[in-house]
Specification:
141 residues, 12-stranded parallel beta sheet
């Protein structure tokens, strides 16, 4: 009897919030979540989560995305900020700019845009300008 009560309290304390926007759902606006979010529908606007955002194969997201980790198998058109990692999985498509320290792009997926992995934070390095746009990083030795 006592062990069952302790076990159920432990499960409640360690359970994470999981949110699902299922296939066929259509959302416009700004949504914020804690924990893991899975999107299989259409979202136009902004999605914010401190946890993991999983974008399913049939999902379409247009707008601003900020997450701890982004795992994309669907279609995203927008600006992405991921605190930990962006992972584009087959057959995912991501069109837009990404800011993240780590990116993984699986063979068979597609990415079109710019990716900022924080190169400007590297000490002792400076950006070179070619034809008026910063393109290369060179060591300042």
């Amino acid at each position: 009897m006592w062990a069952t009560k302790e076990r159920s309290q432990h499960v409640e304390q360690s359970s994470e919030n999981i949110t699902l926007l299922g296939k066929g759902s259509d959302f416009k606006g700004i949504v914020s979540f804690d924990g893991t979010v899975r999107v299989d529908g259409h979202v136009e606007g902004e999605i914010h989560t401190t946890g993991t955002l999983i974008v399913g194969e049939h999902a379409v997201i247009e707008g601003i995305v900020s997450a701890g980790i982004l795992m994309n198998s669907g279609k995203i058109n927008g600006t992405i900020t991921a605190i930990e990692k962006v992972h584009i999985l087959k057959p995912g498509v991501l069109v837009g700019d990404i800011r993240t320290p780590v990116i993984a792009i699986e063979e068979g997926s597609r990415f079109h845009g710019m990716c900022d992995m924080g190169a400007h934070y590297w000490s002792g390095e400076r950006t070179l300008t070619i034809n008026g746009s910063p393109n290369l990083v060179a060591s300042a030795h």
